[in-house]
Amino acid sequence: WHLRGCLLGLQVLAYNRHTYETVAQLLIITVVPSPGGEPAYQGEFLVGNRNVEELLPVAAQEIFLGATAGVWEQDDLHVINVTSALDRGGRVPLPIEGRKEGVYVKVGSRGSFSPCLASAASPQSRFRCSLGQQPLASCYDTFAPHFTIRWCNLTLLQVWPSPTSPGPVWGSGVLEEGGDFQPPTEVPPRDLLPGYLVTLLVPLAVATLLCLLLGHLMCCRREGV
Hints:
- The strands form two sheets. A four-stranded antiparallel beta sheet has the order 4-5-3-6, with no helix packed on it.
- The longest helix has 27 residues, at 193-219.
- β1 (6-15) and β2 form a beta hairpin.
- The protein has a domain at 38-158: Alpha-Beta Plaits, CATH 3.30.70.
- By secondary structure, the chain is of the alpha+beta class.
- The chain is built from four helices and six strands, in the order βββαββααβα.
- The N and C termini lie far apart (83 Å).
């Protein structure tokens, strides 16, 4: 976000998946930029055994961050975004065996990725996933048994800080001595009469010809005339 002290109104519409009852609520959110900016290293995990509402509470996110720290080997992790897999093209699960929709959780850190995460997202690991094999993961999976991570969907992103362009330089508001104001060049007058006549007379002439033709067909082409 490049907003500073901005108020954002967000209307949330939710429904009960069992009774299909809906409820709406208006949330007023104050958008404040992060003091340290956007984290340089971001990883997105697909949790296959959770729905999005199960990872929205802060307590659930703390548990997930603790499991993520075991494979990332960083202690400054924080959740950036939580998205349902249905919003990424996932299919609605069958209502059997307690299947879940799946959740994409994006986590950020200022520390680099661990060798375990780097190997899981390497081209060799992607190739093994395309063959239906297990990806390369050299570390112990600290997410199990609470979270089932789809390691073939792991995405690692390194964000580089964007250069900030200098803002406009404001002057004193007083015209410098000798700098006379030069008004824009005057536009020469245009003759609009020909265009007006063409716009008016051409449709009138066409309408007259159509009326004459229609009158000729109706009055002069009748049987017996």
